[in-house]
Amino acid sequence: MVITRTPFRISFFGGGTDYPGWSRQHGGAVLATTIDKYCYISCRYLPPFFDKKYRVVYSQIENCSSINEIKHPAVREGLRYLSINRGVAIHHDGDLPARSGMGSSSSFMVGLLHGLYALKGHMPTKDQLAKKSILIEQEILCENVGSQDQVSAAYGGLNHIIFQPNGNISVHPLTITQKKIAELNSHLMLFYTGIKRTASEIASSYVDNLDGKKAYFQTMKDLVKEGISVLSDSRPINDFGKLLHEAWKAKKCLSPLVSNFEVEQIYAQAVSAGALGGKLLGAGGGGFILFFAEPSVQVAVKDALSTFIHVPFEFEHSGSQVIFYSHEQDYLNEEKIRSQQVIKAFKELEKI
């Protein structure tokens, strides 16, 4: 059995420039971090005498005789891509809900591939995990998704991620003090709006005409540089909150589906309570919303948004990890030892 733990991410600046329709022509860059909220996936081979060959447990339960019968697209194509023909059981649990703007689908894809690779006895690099996940989501499943979520999930940490027109991806961890990281973390507040949406559907409303939104992408490129400057230099941390506000204003220009009346109300209530800025995470439309607020006003912000779930978090730096691994031979050896112990116990009883 293999159990993987893969983090969810928060994207600060640069979202959209990681979509291949833009980055393959102009290049892209994002500033993002992973947090201590995770996607957990367990994988194990099934014995051959089960009625069904594949068992997949997530928000639904699937028992299938062939890969083609599996409805979960990431599981189906992940098994097919790695040519896993033996019976497999796959279970998913997550700290945060799906379709919420936290990169959950990519965290699932990265964690699944990590688990399936390990099940086959291979430990992939972070680069391999990220690129294989991008390939399956973008080219096989044809999802309208970017490339930052897979990279963040695989690598972990607070990173400046650069997407080259030739397809190369470089990950640059921010070299800032722990004090600065803690200061940033202490000013961030995460709330769940309860509005579920599918990122691919929201993104499809603006990715078809990326060249027509050059002003937005130039703004996001500049904000990535500004955000890094705030964290790397001696500028006041509150400047980061003001940049988030600018990013949110720019993001809403992408499509009318990015925001809505309820989201605007939430944002206005938080700002009225003292937040300096914020943004919906992911493609938009709902899910989680991030605010930047000084610690002295955070109680007021929580009171203003008391009908929504506040989710405290810390930054994490590990990326996708195999947290439990039991090789099939180890399992067989354990069963052999147990059988020997049972036989020995019976022999002892016969002597009585």
Task: Break the fold down into its secondary structure elements and pairings.
Layout: E1 2-13, H1 20-26, E2 28-45, E3 54-57, E4 61-64, H2 73-81, E5 88-94, H3 104-119, H4 126-140, H5 148-155, E6 158-163, E7 169-173, H6 178-186, E8 188-192, H7 199-203, H8 214-232, H9 238-251, H10 261-272, E9 277-280, E10 288-292, H11 298-304, E11 309-310, E12 315-316, E13 321-325, H12 328-351
Parallel strand pairs: 3-5
Antiparallel strand pairs: 1-2, 1-13, 2-5, 2-6, 2-12, 3-4, 6-7, 8-10, 8-11, 9-10
Helix pairs in contact: 2-3, 3-4, 3-5, 4-5, 8-9
Account of the protein in words:
- The protein is α+β, with helices and mostly antiparallel strands and 352 residues long.
- It has a single domain (2-325), classed as Ribosomal Protein S5, domain 2, CATH 3.30.230.120.
- The chain is 41% helix and 22% strand.
- It contains twelve helices and 13 strands.
- Strands 1, 2, 3, 4, 5, 6, 7, 12 and 13 form a nine-stranded mixed β-sheet that branches.
- A hairpin with a 3-residue loop joins strand 3 (54-57) and strand 4.
- The radius of gyration is 23 Å and the shape is globular.
- The two termini are 39 Å apart.
